[in-house]
Amino acid sequence: MAISTDDSDDPYLWLEDLDGPEATTWVRDRNAETVAALTGGPTFAARQAGIRQVLDAEDRIPYPGWRGDGFYYDLWRDAAHPRGLWRRTTLDQYRRPEPEWDVLLDLDALARTEGENWVWGGVTTLPPQHRRCLISLSRGGADAVVVREYDLADRTFVDGGFTVPEAKTDVCWIDADHIWIGTDLGPGSLTDSGYPRVVLRWRRGTSLTDAEVVYEASTVDVGAYGWRDPTPGFERDFVSRSLDFYRSESFLLTGAGQRVRIPVPEDAEWGVRREWLLVQPRTPWPVGDLTHPAGALLAIRFDDFLTGARDFDVLFRPDEHTSLGGSAWTRNHLILTTLTDVRSRLELLTPGEHGWRREPLPGVPVDEESCLVETDPDRDDSYLVASEGFLQPATLRLGRLGGGAETLKRAPAFFDTDGLAVRQFFATSADGTPVPYFVVGDPAAPAGPTLLHGYGGFEVSLTPGYDGIIGRGWLARGGSYAVANIRGGGEYGPRWHRAALREHRPRAYADFAAVATDLVTRGITTPAMLGIEGGSNGGLLMGAMLTRYPSLVGAVVANVPLLDMRRYHRLLAGASWIAEYGDPDVAEDWAYLREYSPYHNVRGEVRYPPVLFVTSTRDDRVHPGHARKMTARLREHGHDVSYYENVEGGHGAAANNEQRAFIEAMSLEFLWRKLAPSADSVPAQAVGGGSGSSSTTTTGVPGRTFSSSRRWPLAVNRMQPFVVC
């Protein structure tokens, strides 16, 4: 049953007007208050400087991308190049301590020349020569981008080449003269979620308005997109529409112009590589006399599948403790990443006449937790693997099947780990579910300031990684750091996610509350010294903890958060997340959303812990109105609330290292002031690099991707251009 859409009872609706004069003045005043309160004094300056050193460190690993041409590509930002250098080098050069890089595009120089606030938005190159590419440039870090064709040999944008005005655009090369494109074509061309509804085949030298319409989705779908598999000998074109965030319908385009439905379950993830189709169902999939479990990985020859064959090879089957973390092809093999109680393992699978051979991935140290960084399936069977942990800076290795692994780079240590340990515990949630979490800190220390991070949504796993910002800004001051693997995430596969989906979302909050309670029970902290932090969907988690469990924590930081669950689906990309949260315009859904929507559950008589909201005016994914309105409502009731809105930065809230260092330092300063009993009560380390040689690990440190564990996710997968919150 539909409910009224009248929002006249929302007294702070005017704060959703991004650039309205009244809202702009309000933001300026709140920013001034927060900056004045938190950024004065030597401790903030020292913390900010230490974080900036981490972000700009010249000896950090330049993680490369492979594109099929043998080069190592990288986007590099430092103090001299805050917007970044897009560059590449050879393997021989990359091996050196200081490689010679070939700069392809200097974004700082481009921004100065064009008078634009350009932020790198990504690139796609044209195989097999990889001379031409389509570069995406964002104004201020927004999801919307300008797309421009670039020539890597001439180092110039192509005169008369493919150019697309600012929009949430999806592009893919077909050949040198054609691309697949979905973009804003004017009224009726976008879905309710703000993504392209129409897929076009655009020919070079013609107007975009004259491009061939190949496929159209409905406005109530999340979006539509087209793409090409350019693998030599297996070239194929596809179009898809996303029915919601987890369900899609996809077609193979034939040379005769027909669309052949790919008959996999709507909620399954799938991909084609050479002759193979891989399918990972999100819910149990009955096939003949068998039912394949959710989270399994199945393989079959693609052409056979289209003609009716269903004799899948089961490459992975989940259990109560183990889930599939990901898969990636090399030229002749498939690499699987699995998680067992959030502990990673890499396996090599090889197809043959008698099935698939399975073995540990060669060259990966058995005593280290590792994750796959890159493969180059069009070229060879090489792979890049990174090994790291909470207290272990990353080591990047180049693996070759049959040839072991070569260490290419080692990341620097940014803080002293003497006396620190990593421990894994399991808290018991309200319904009896064991919830894993990690704690980093001194196990012999008395209860002290502790920062707990969480996300719990969109089947995204939080796996441990080395974070120099947390190390310098928190651990080095004597604090402890914890990461909660709550339901809604993907640590135990689709079932862990579904357990907190839609009306079950409060289970994620109960899990986080159980971890907070367990930290106190174990003597690691006290409620008054426990801070919590999360961004995006994790910001919604923070808002729910603030309003549902205020007595459990001493301070809260929420970054780019969702908070108004009555209007989230009407703001920017919010409609694309209805499958995750529910539809507020349906009475049955609003009945449960209303129970936890933070904006609708602020009470004047309840004592809340102090909270800091951080957002960005240029965030075109989660509207800054969420944080603005929540701040205004808390202020109305006299609660301790701080607010900071960066004028740029998009969903990451910062467009460069200077902005990020300022925001990170301000957040940690806020937490330390609220949680530490006094400046001298917690022993601090000297800020700087440390050996890490005497640290201990109680349970081992599971591997993870090489980005910070505190960054909220920004994308789903290669086949799905829509983004999580």
Automatic annotation (TrEMBL):
The organism of origin for this protein: Micromonospora lutea
Q: Which Pfam families match?
A: Peptidase_S9, Peptidase_S9_N
List the top taxonomic levels of the source. Answer: Bacteria, Bacillati, Actinomycetota, Actinomycetes, Micromonosporales
Task: Quote the InterPro entries the UniProt record gives.
Answer: AB_hydrolase_fold (IPR029058), Pept_S9A_N (IPR023302), Peptidase_S9_cat (IPR001375), Peptidase_S9A (IPR002470), Prolyl_oligopep/macrocyclase (IPR051167)
Q: Where is the Peptidase S9A N-terminal domain?
A: 8-218
Note down the stretches annotated as region Disordered. Answer: 682-708
> Which residue intervals define the domain Peptidase S9 prolyl oligopeptidase catalytic in the entry?
475-675
Q: What is this protein's name?
A: Prolyl oligopeptidase
Q: Which SUPFAM superfamilies match?
A: alpha/beta-Hydrolases (SSF53474), Peptidase/esterase 'gauge' domain (SSF50993)
Q: Which UniProt key words apply to this protein?
A: Hydrolase, Protease, Serine protease
Q: Which domain of life is it from?
A: Bacteria
